[in-house]
Amino acid sequence: MAPTAAYARAIVAASASNPSFMHHIVRRSLAHPNSTQQVTLGVIAIYVVVIALLWNLPYVRWSLWPFKMLTIAFHEFGHAMAACLTGGRVKSISLDPREGGVTHMQGGITAITLPAGYLGSSFIGALLIFCGFDIVASKVASIVLGVCFLLTLWWARRDWLTILTVLGAVGLLVACWFIKHAEPLRFVVLFLGVMSALYSAWDICDDLILRKVNESDASVFAQRYGGSSQCWGIFWCFISIAFMAVSIVAGLAAFSESFAEQEDDSKNFIPT
C-alpha cells in the first residue's frame, strides 16, 4: 500500500503544479484502459448482449424476472419522484411481471411525470454503471439503493409482489457485502445498472415492435402532447444511451485502481 499511496501523492503534487498533467492522465486512462477497466468494459458488453437475448427470447425470458421487477421498480420510482417534485401525490406503486408497473398518483405535471419513468430508470442505471467500476463506490450505491427501495416499499402498500421483490433485492445486496470484501457487489451493481440504463430500449422494443397489449408511457405522451409514440420512444431511448455512454467514460476517468487496490480500499470502508 505504501508505494500506491506515494504514487497517488506524487500525482496530486504534479497536478497541483501543472493542471494539464491531470488532464493528460485522464485522457490516457480513457484511451488505454488498464486490465481491471478492460474486464469491467467486457462485463458490460456481455451484460448488454445477454440481457437483450434473454429479454426477447420466449422460453428463457422468465429467467430475468426478478431483475426485471427491480428495473420496473426503478421506472415507477422515477414516476413517483417526478410527481412529488412537481406538486403531485403518490397513492401507491404496484408491479406486475406481465403488464409492468403502475404508479397511482394525483396531480403533478404530466409532461414531466410521463417521461420520468424511462429517463429516471436510465439515470439511475447510469449512476449504477459508474459506481460499478469500483467496489467502494458500489457499496455507496447499494446504500442509496436501499433507501430508494424503502421508499418504494412505503408506496407499495399491500402489493405483496412489490414487497417481496424489493426485500429480495435488499437481501441480495446485503449478501454481496459479506463475500470477498464485497467484490461481487460490483458486478451485481453493474448488472442492475446496464439493465436499468437500457430499460427504455428493452421496453420500447416490447411496446412498439412486439406490440404489447398494455399502453406505454410513450403512447400516452403522444396522445397528450402530439407526435408519434415511436418518435418519443426512440428519442427517450437515445437519451438513455447517452446517459450510459457518459457513465462509462466517467467511470474510466474516475476509477483506475486494480482489483487488489479496490479490495484494500473496501476493507477500510464499512468492512465486512
From TrEMBL:
Chain segments annotated as transmembrane: 39-57, 108-129, 136-154, 160-178, 185-202, 233-255
Protein name per the record: Peptidase M50B-like-domain-containing protein
Organism: Calycina marina
UniProt xrefs under InterPro entries: Peptidase_M50B-like (IPR049500)
Superkingdom of source: Eukaryota
Keyword terms, alphabetized: Membrane, Transmembrane, Transmembrane helix
